Amino acid sequence: MTIAFPPLPYAQDALAPHISADTLATHHGKHHKTYVDKVNAAIEGTELADKSLEEIIHHAEGSGNKGLFNNSAQSWNHAFYWNSLSPARTAPSGDLAAAIDRDFGSLDELKKKLKDTAINHFASGWAWLVSRDGALSVTDTHDAGTELTAGITPLLVIDVWEHAYYIDRKNVRPDYVNAVVDELLNWDFAAENLARGGSWTYPAA
């Protein structure tokens, strides 16, 4: 069995003008694909060959296999990121909206926290909206770090590696982050993850 390279959940030009088709062609078609290819090369012929990506990530983390962890976690993070974005404008509702009001005071305050975390994160990494012990919070992880951890349910993520925005924005990360938070976040996906009460599952091959 091999780890899948899932297609984008929308057309390559669907996020323009906020994220260009050129960026997605490179980010999804090259960066994400390379991570998946490296995972598949590493697990071929091993006991991990028939495992899910989530199992591979946990094995790599537990065994200290940094190379496998980096490529497997990055494969998962990227697939989760594509689903965290939507070309159609969405808004929190129901239980998600109530949880946001309870834990942040308002959607505007949550957006401010997401923007501050993503913009001020040093170097490469990810800014997350997660549910932990029934409460929502904003976190960040460095490099390939993932919130795919016991007791945490990732709801949304923003990629703040330079390859996520450099073609469109050069080094102006705030312009990219503001566009993602204000125009592209898939709140319906966040609501599904919250309702599930457990981590999203990477698609099978």
Would you write up a description of this structure?
- With 205 residues, the protein is mostly helical.
- The chain has two domains: 21-84, Helix Hairpins; 94-196, Iron/manganese superoxide dismutase, C-terminal domain (minor pseudopilin epsh fold), CATH 3.55.40.
- Helices cover 51% and strands 12% of the residues.
- It contains eight helices and three strands; from the N terminus they run H-H-H-H-H-E-E-E-H-H-H.
- It has helices spanning 21-43, 53-63, 66-84, 94-104, 107-120, 166-169, 173-184, 187-196, and strands spanning 125-132, 135-142, 152-159.
- Strands 2-1-3 form a three-stranded antiparallel β-sheet.
- A hairpin with a 2-residue loop joins strand 1 (125-132) and strand 2.
- The radius of gyration is 16 Å and the shape is globular.
- It starts with 20 loop residues before the first helix and ends in a 9-residue tail after the last helix.
Quick recap of the structure?
The chain is mainly alpha-helical and 205 residues long.
**For the report, how would you describe the main beta sheet?**
3 strands, antiparallel
Count of spatially separate domains = 2
Assigned CATH superfamily of the largest domain: Iron/manganese superoxide dismutase, C-terminal domain
In percent, how helical is the residue content? 40-55%
Q: Cα distance, first to last residue?
A: 8 Å
What value does the Rg take, in angstroms?
16 Å
- Can you count the helices? 8
Strand order, largest beta sheet? 2-1-3
As for the CATH topology of the largest domain, it is minor pseudopilin epsh fold
Which class best fits the helix and strand makeup? mainly alpha
Topology as a string of helices (H) and strands (E): HHHHHEEEHHH
Which whole number gives the mean pLDDT?
Answer: 97
CATH architecture of the largest domain: 3-Layer(bab) Sandwich
Uncertain residue ranges: none
How many strands?
Answer: 3
Shape: globular
